[in-house]
Amino acid sequence: MFNGIAGGGAEDLPQLQSTMRAIELACSYIQINTNPAAAEATILSLHQSPQPYKACRFILENSQVASARFQAAAAIKEAAIREWSFLSTEDKGGLISFCLGYVIQHANSSDAYVFSKVSSVAAQLMKRGWLEFTPAEKEVFFYQINQAILGSRGLDVQFIGIHFLESLVSEFSPSTSSAMSLPREFHENCRKSLEQNYLKTFYSWAQDAALSVTNKIVESNSDVPEVKVCNAALRLMHQILNWEFRYSKGGTKGSINVFSDGMRSDTASSRKTECVIVQPGASWCDVLLSSSHVGWLINLYSSLRQKFAFEGYWLDCPVAVSARKLIVQLCSLAGEVFPSSEYSVILDLFNNLDNAQMREQHLLLLLSGVLPWIDPPDVISKEIEEGRSGSEMIDGCRALLSIATVTIPVVFDRLLRSIRPFGTLTLLSLLMGEVVKVLLANSNDKETWSYEARDILLDTWTTLLASMDGSGGNSWLPPEGMHAAASLFSLIAESELKLASASATTDEDDADCLASVSAMDERLGSYALIARAAVDATVPFLTKLFSDRVARLHQGRGTVDPTDTLEEVYSLLLIIGHVLADEGEGETALVPDALQTHFVDVVEAGNHPVVLLSSSIVKFAEQCLDANMRSSIFSPRLMEELTCHQLLHALVRRRNICFHLLSLDSWRNLANAFANDKSLFLLNGVSQRSLAQTLVLSAYGMQSSDASNQYVKDLMAHMTSSLVDLANNSDLKNLAQQPDIIMLVSCVLERLRGAASATEPRTQRAIYEMGLSVMNPVLRLLEVYKHESAVIYLLLKFVVDWVDGQISYLEAHETAGVVNFCMSLLQIYSSHNIGKISLSLSSTLLNEAKTEKYKDLRALLQLLSHLCSKDMVDFSSDSIETQSTNISQVVFFGLHIITPLITLELLKYPKLCFDYFSLISHMLEVYPETLAQLNSDAFNHVLTTVDFGLHQQDVDIVTMCLRALKALASYHYKETKAGNTGLGSHAAGQTDPNGVFHEGILSRFLRTLLQFLLFEDYSTDLVSTAADALFPLILCEPNLYQGLGNELIEKQGNPNFKTRLANALQVLTTSNQLSSSLDRLNYQRFRKNLNNFLIEVRGFLKTK
């Protein structure tokens, strides 16, 4: 219907006109939503017609309907990509030339989206032929573009030329390129060629285009057409610098990454603010540094800024935004672009500046240009509050973040010192301080510029401070910088307290309150880094703040409403907690290096600033034991913060502090109240557990192991006895359902769990006896509370933590007792169908049930994993074989109970998924023979979940599944080679009653793994682990492997690809002296073979 390439003669005119009218009518029908199905079918017929180029050209050149022209351009692209291999070289070049000529000829048209589409089609077709075209042929196209960009044919054509280069660069970038159903190797080779041979040239052309119109823009008193060209040029330069540079001119990064999914990896993803580091290589030095390019850009923006100083709109106009973006991008320039001494010619241009000096000079020039955007902070802030746009201030903050990303604190600070009487850290502190003041004044308005500025500046502080020693220490912070950090932290703390006080009178619902606390918690880590950068000042300051608020509570007791002050104390405790402790894995808080290495000159522990601060908090916490004080000034939230946050955790992590704590009357009173007073049962579950863990850990400060164990026994005796008494009650079934008893049991279990999680060698014996004494009560309660999911979970978690802390220390007879207890627990759990979920529940209740059972199942998986550890880590004096305790049988018995309950839907919970595959991987690696004994249904369920795990995004999950496959396949291969059955029928396959043959498990996984390795995206970190799984699978199923290889070879339409693939498959299993023995050396050889194989074939097998 729509045939031909060349322009049509007179005899074709009626047909071409008819086609154009049909497409125009279809487009108009779609716009007014009249018979859209028929209209879409008409347009689709144009797109799918063979060689519709003649009709498309006619529509583009003659139609007055913009949407029809747009569809014609799209049809050219689709047909050309589809038919590319059948087109002649002349036709290919002709299509590109037509598209380029069309946009240049119609450069002054108002239908911008049409010409953007045609320009995009030209870029896509140029990329499609990129590896075919000779340098001379490319030069013809680029000569035409360069002439347009030079401006000799007018501003509109100049803009079109720049816009085409934007489309071209976008098309060659992996994250924005169009799908062409071509091998990844093609896309990467195009990318490499453009980066090495053209990107720098395009940047220079954009520079020249901007320079050609700059004078006219600066000299003009109004907006002129040249602004459009300048903005496009600046935008193109920013786009090019945003390129993920991978291939240096010298080829040091010359190999193609066949595993990449096209997403860039050089951004600071952990920050709220994205910051791309620009590393174009040494060859870019002349363009970016030695050509006065940065100075020109700074001067251009400064001139325009001064010229339009009284025009409020200017800061947000496109050219201003583009210029600032480019300036900010240049602030993150790094790497070989700053040459070493070997580049002597370039260094001569800079008076022999070395790499570091050259970098600092570059950053100082940029900082000098950015300063007017942010300094003086108070003046600019006031102007913004009076109506000026805040975009320039925010970009200035981004520039500081970029500079911080590519420097160290001492360099960052001295940049400003050469032109100002203070350093950059002081400016950063002043700027952040002003932003905090604005936030405080506008606390009810969440959309102000200051919120974004605060996040960027906090990222800047975090980047600088966390880079020094990983915890914010001040090893390399200059004195003035420490003073700036101290001043800023003081302001932040005071502001947070004012906000907390104000929040006491606001009417927030629970969701808003939780969101507010969560949002603040995200900032506390950054606040803590700033505080730790100047601990000499900030720790005493926090002590004073806390003491002042406590004194205020006492002074106003009974006469003044304490609500405002209580909110301040709560907020202050949150801040102090983050300053004094780092969050580690699990529930154990870590003492920051900045606090451990500081205050070394303090001899008396009682005079240590951290001890003084901590002691003041402990003494305040002690007052909650007094009923009158508790009712008058202690809110529930404040009590939770005192007991469960990082504060007390941090105090008990060091023995010298524990020793000091145990000498305090307040600490002894707290421990006594915990052991004997029911008043602390008012705390929530997390607080109960945390307080128990903290108090047990403090036993580390006792003089001897016996004393530590006795301390723990005294602390926990009341808890264990209450649980034993309850379980032995003859009326337990009725008694247990009373709300106060459920609360009591829950509190006791939380405390037992907290104590169990605090197990250390000095207190292991006492905690073992604690758990031993409640074994039978736990089993009894498991039966009684089978319908109380919350209590069941607490029971399971206590057992999990207790077994985890004890198992490696137990003697053989003790291990047997614990194992028997765990088997009884699993049997009771199973017999009461506690883990079953009724499908008759409503969707809401079903989701709640899934969540509850997910938690239970995860706890049981952890229990089985902890039991497994006995075979790996054993500190006992004898062996568990003495009592014939078979850990593997116990664990597989547990898996037999748990596995049917773990559906693929539940495995979507990340933590459950990780725990499950950790256990499965371990069991298959250590006890593959036991798995082989499972019945067909149980075996297939386990392996179905392994297949599920192979396709997860989490690298750790995939790694564990690959290790499981390796264990399974290597076990079968070694066993069958020795004349045994190995996996037996599980590996042999079987025919179902309908006569359909089903492959064995190893055959299925060989197919799956080859598909994964050849066609799916994954991290290169997985290749070695995958090789270890693939090697034994190939040895187990050599005929299938050969058949799959032949099948893949025959699918290749390109003879070159077919030959390459056949050779690569042959080399994979024969090169590098590879043999059929599953020993360490052969595994290493096969890893190397597989890596080379994938590099060779993935580039053309995987398409986009």
Automatic annotation (TrEMBL):
This is Exportin-4. Keywords: Cytoplasm, Nucleus, Protein transport, Transport. InterPro entries: ARM-like, ARM-type_fold, XPO4/7-like. The keyword Cell wall biogenesis/degradation does not apply. The keyword rRNA processing does not apply. It comes from Brassica napus (Rape). PANTHER family: EXPORTIN 4,7-RELATED (PTHR12596), EXPORTIN-4 (PTHR12596:SF1). The lineage of its organism: Eukaryota, Viridiplantae, Streptophyta, Embryophyta, Tracheophyta. It is found in: Cytoplasm; Nucleus. It comes from the Eukaryota. SUPFAM superfamilies: ARM repeat. Belongs to the exportin family.
